[in-house]
Design a protein that fits this description.
The chain is of the alpha+beta class and 561 residues long. It has 18 helices and 19 strands. The chain has helices at residues 25-36, 41-55, 93-98, 120-131, 138-151, 157-165, 197-209, 212-215, 217-229, 236-240, 268-278, 283-286, 291-311, 322-325, 328-335, 446-459, 465-470, 495-503, and strands spanning 13-15, 19-22, 65-72, 77-83, 153-154, 193-194, 245-247, 250-254, 257-261, 360-365, 371-377, 425-429, 435-442, 474-479, 484-490, 508-512, 522-528, 546-550, 557-560. It is globular.
Length: 561
Amino acid sequence: MSQLKFCSRRSPVVCSSGCVASSQPLATNIGLDILKSGGNAVDAAVSVAAALNVTEPCSTGIGGDCFCLYYDASTKQVHGLNGSGRAPQSLTFELLKEHGFSEANPPPPLHAYNVTVPGAAAGWCDAVALYGSKKLSMGQILQPAIELAEKGFPVSEITSYHWKQNVHALQTPGNIHGKDLLIDGKAPDHGQVFCNPFLANTFKELAKLGKQGFYEGHVAEAVVKVIQNNGGVMDLEDLKSHVTEEVKPIVTNYKGVNIWEIPPNGQGITALLALNILENFNMNELGHNTPDYLHVLIESVKISFADALWFCADSEKASVPTVKLLSKSYARDRSKLIDLQRATSTLNHGNPFMVGSDTVYFTMVDAQGNACSFINSNYMGFGTGLVPDGCGFTLQNRGANFSLQPDHPNCLAPKKRPYHTIIPALATAADSGELLCSFGVMGGFMQPQGQVQVLLNMLEFGMNPQEALDAARFCVEYNNKTDAWYISLEDGIPQYIAEALRVKGHTVMVPVTGHSRSMFGRGQIITKGDWWRQPWRTLSSSNSVYWAGSDPRADGCALGY
């Protein structure tokens, strides 16, 4: 595999009537066509979600989950949908214990126990029903993806690489239909045409019957059969009883900007916790990506993860103190843990009760100013890699994010949703409610720290959306086995910066180059107006120009008209 080089630049896309940004050009173009045909931002989002299932099955699909944030320009309200699935009714902590699994010895990532009910199909249908334009049917919205799957498409470069990296998930014993996502038993090469008629048929069922076409009938039967044949316990009732949850988004104010996220079980609260902590420091004065700036940012991310990895759980099944966690007084207390000269080696979750008071992300804005921030994922590439007979998609492994520690809020339980990494985001002006941007950075636990980095690039340093995505990033990772934090720095952050961080006590890996840059996530941003230019607080509500960026770490692009 040739080294993936980053040696060019992109201009931000500027347009006035509608804009789409995704990780795949064919999908971006499909979303734009939906906007041009009278659909709104949500219609376009679902069309792109389906198209990406076709073009990037190693990242996303209808066998996974989705989350959606929708900005309604007519009311200036932000709405949220939690399209994540729940554990099977028969999957209990005691059952796993009987089979020898524990916190120290969890089920392998590809085990059928890790399949939670796929929430994407219902999420797509419910998003269109609740927030769609009502001008296009589900059949019209899915038709471009159906045609793409039937006629075939040439596989993009980065997608081909990750398809090959994760091909083992399709080749496990017992996964007899994994071959449906291969060509002659192999992952497709860059430029090789891949067809997926089985997935086209699944989409036709969804278009014809709605949610029932996925959660009941032959698709549901095929899902249950492949899970049970591989040791899982999901049954038809688990699928039939699945519901999407309409949620009230959580929000924090960072220097006059409201940042919106899906509440737990999504990890968006991690980004908001970090922003609240960072408000206690003058990040602009520290200078972009200087040792001091990165140190404070890294420490704030570590503290936020220490909280989120304990408190982030299914709020229907566990008590999640979201309001107290997001209070400014709690953030001030947590910010005092940051030593400006020294990295913190051990961090525990705080006590908010003691204070006062592989995935695809894509976004689109329509001509009316409505915005949709949407994310869809299998988790871990192909998820479990299990392919239901005649369906053309893999099943997720989101259950791998459950804790098997009995007293943990995120401990596995029947009908419970796990800690979820995928998080769409929106930003609005706190005073006027005007849309500022729809944005996200996909990639497991990189997502909240990626969001914070690109957001500060715009808010603190005046970068346009493309520049904000292009800038080199860091990635904080916690290793349970060593009880240590590791910091990876992307190529573009100089060696002397890495050395300065090591002096402060950070364990640093540098430089991360080529295809390994995927660990830093892949983001998309669409802004309304150029508020990121200093001074950024002067937002004109009449400014209808959209500015968009698409991450160079992916195959995609932003397009507008």
